[in-house]
TrEMBL record:
GO terms for molecular function: GMP kinase activity. Belongs to the guanylate kinase family. Residues 2-180 form the Guanylate kinase-like domain. Its main location: cytoplasm. It comes from Patulibacter brassicae. This is Guanylate kinase. SUPFAM superfamilies: P-loop containing nucleoside triphosphate hydrolases. The gene is gmk.
Amino acid sequence: MARVFVITGPSGVGKGTLIRRLRAAVPELRLSVSATTRAPRAGEQDGRDYWFLDEETFHRKVEDGEFVEHAEYAGRRYGTLRSELERHLAAGAPVVLEIEVQGAQQIRGTMPEAVQVFVAPPSFDVLRERLAGRGTDDPEVIERRLDVARGELRQQEQFDHLLVNDDLDATTERLVGIVREQLATATAG
Ligand SMILES: Nc1ncnc2c1ncn2[C@@H]1O[C@H](COP(=O)(O)OP(=O)(O)OP(=O)(O)O)[C@@H](O)[C@H]1O
Ligand SMILES: Nc1nc2c(ncn2[C@@H]2O[C@H](COP(=O)(O)O)[C@@H](O)[C@H]2O)c(=O)[nH]1
């Protein structure tokens, strides 16, 4: 029964944008707020955008088995807290995770019933433009993320669904369609 949706793909491809639109269309879908050791960006709030943790606290939570998945990404740590995911599932709500590719691969091993969607850019140049256009990261951070993206894009065929995020409205519609279909199947079953 598909109650967990994983949205993965390279940084800057539009995962967060698509998930905001998805949640507006499917209001019962809840977002699992991840933990990270990276610094908050301007306007980001602890507990809403991320749980911002120092390295020591993140490490302790890893040791205590508090993450369902975690990964090092571009020099920072990111992870899905078991408590976040279980809180939503216990309330009977479907949950969406926005995570990078190593974490998505871990979820495949531990939660094979989760529906995994890989979001790809129309081209590498477009990905670069989106990361730069977002205006949240320094040029060297953008280059590091693009380096990671090359490896991530090589894994795109391994996921249940592949969405090329070209036209935002069209991609949103396809994502909403995937989620609604899975939820309808789960309800019927
Ligand atoms: N289909 C699209 N066409 C044009 N611009 C887009 C499209 N989708 C997203 N964007 C823009 O691309 C930028 C990056 O999007 P977003 O922050 O959602 O990416 P992300 O995959 O969530 O990144 P990260 O993994 O770093 O959180 C944003 O400025 C967003 O408005
Ligand atoms: N494996 C995980 N990856 C995560 C998680 N939360 C976010 N992310 C991904 O990290 C990168 C960078 O994010 P940014 O906010 O610094 O731009 C991006 O691909 C996110 O999707 C998580 O819990 N686990």
